[in-house]
Amino acid sequence: MVCTTVKEGIECLFMSNKGCRFNGGSCHAIVEKCEGCQKVLELPTGNYCQVFPDPAIKWRVGNCNMATHVKASSGNRNGKLNPLKASKRRAH
Ligand code: SF4
């Protein structure tokens, strides 16, 4: 249904005849780490994420997987080789 709370006019799965079914009754605003992401919607009610109703959760453990302003968050290797693979490589 179409949202009638903070993302007014936008189609949303959480919207129902009884109002927003999301935790708290509406989407939560973006967090500081979302700034710069192309998924941010700037609305008269504030800045919200196009995809997630509670952006803070997406940043609780590592980077948001849908963020457009940060590199892919595949583990915490920082581009370094997996030590196991590296040792195998050395053995050859
Ligand atoms: S996609 Fe992730 S980083 Fe971008 S606005 Fe949404 S929650 Fe924030």
* Proportion of residues in extended strands: 5-15%
- How many runs of DSSP E, i.e. beta strands? 4
Strand order of the largest sheet: 1-2
Morphology call: elongated
N- to C-terminal separation?
59 Å
Biggest beta sheet attributes: 2 strands, antiparallel
Helix percentage: 10-25%
In terms of topology, how is this protein built?
Layout: E1 15-16, E2 19-20, E3 40-43, E4 46-49, H1 55-58, H2 83-91
Antiparallel strand pairs: 1-2, 3-4
Q: What does this 3D model show about the protein?
A:
- The structure is a single chain.
- The protein has a domain at 28-91.
- The protein is 14% helix and 13% strand.
- The protein has helices at residues 55-58, 83-91, and strands at 15-16, 19-20, 40-43, 46-49.
- It is elongated, with a radius of gyration of 19 Å.
- The N and C termini lie far apart (59 Å).
- Iron/sulfur cluster binds next to helix 1.
